[in-house]
Amino acid sequence: MRGIRSFAALMLITAALIQLGGCGEKENKDLLKARALISKGDYEAAPLKVEAALKAEPQNPEALCFKEILSVRGKADPEAWRRVIERCLKLMEPVESEIDQLSSKEELDEDELKRLRRLIRSRNYAMGFLVKALAETAERGGWTRRLFEEAPDLTVRAILKGEKCFDEEVRRRADQLILRMDGAAIKPLINQLSSADPVEKANAVRLLGLLKAEEAVEPLGRLAGSREESFEVIYEIPIALERIGGEGIIGPLRAVLKNQYAQPKIHAVKLLAELKAVEAIPDIIDLLAEGNSYVVSAAKSALISFG
Which residue, 44, 78, 125, 171, has fewest beta-carbon neighbours within 10 Å? Predict the structure, then answer.
C-alpha cells in the first residue's frame, strides 16, 4: 500500500502545482528571460541573461547549470561534456534533496507548495536543457562514443533526471540518447534499479525494455518480487519484459503476479497465456481468489486459453 499512497500523494502535489500558476513573478526575472531565450533557441542572447541572473543570485543552481551547458553546447568534446554533466548533477543535488523533503510531507502549506513548484521547475529547466543540448550535439558525428564508454553511469544519471521533466520533447530526446548509448547504458540502468527515487527507477525499467536488454531480466524479476516496491515501478516491469521477450521472462512475470497491483498483474497474466507458460498455471489459479474482478477475469481467460 505504501507505493499506492506515494503515487496518490504525487498526483495530489502535481494537481496542486498546476493550480498555482501565478508564482513565477517572484523568481529572478533575468533567469525567466534566459529560460525563454533558451526555449526559443536564441543562444546568443541567452548567455547575457544568464550572467545578469547570476549577478543577482551568484549561487543559483539553475543559472549556473545554464552557464555550464551553454559553454559546451554544440561542441563535440567528450571530456568537456563529462565535466559539465558532473557539475550540473552536483549543482542539482541540494535542489533534488529539498524536492524529496517537501514531497514526503503529508500536507504542504501554500508557501511550501510554491517553493516545491519553483524547485521542480528549476530542476526541469536545467536538466531538460542539458539533455536536449547533449542530444542535439550528439547528432554531429560519433564523438559521443568516448563519452558513453568513459562516463556511462554519469550520462545515464543525467538522462534519468531529464526523463523526469514534464516536457515531452525532453523525454523524447532522453530516449534517443539511451538508444544511442545502446549496450553502454544497460549496466548503469540496472544499477539505477536500486535508486531511492521511484520515478527514476521506473524510467530505468522502461528504458531497459526499450533496449531489449536480456541482462535485465533477472534484476527485473527480483524487483517484481518486492512487496515494498512502488506502483510506478511495478507497472513498468511487464511492459519492459514484453519488449525483451523470450522464455526467460516467464519467471519475472510470475513474480509480478505475487504483487499487490492489479494493472501489472493483468498485463503479466495475459503475457503468460500468450507464452503458453503452463508452469504459471498454479499462480494464475491463485488469482481467482483476488478481490479485483478485472484480475479474476484475466485469470479465467488465461486458464481457458491453456485448454
Answer: 44
**Residue 26, pLDDT score:** 66
If you search the block for the grid coordinates 562516463, which residue do you land on? Answer: 151
- Ramachandran sector of residue 27 (left: φ over 0; alpha: ψ -120 to 50; beta: rest): beta
pTM given for the model = 0.86
Residue entry with cell 550540473: 88
Whole-number average pLDDT of the chain: 90
In the block, cell 510506478 appears at 232
241-257 as b/e: b if 16+ CB within 10 A: bbebeeeebbbbbbbbb
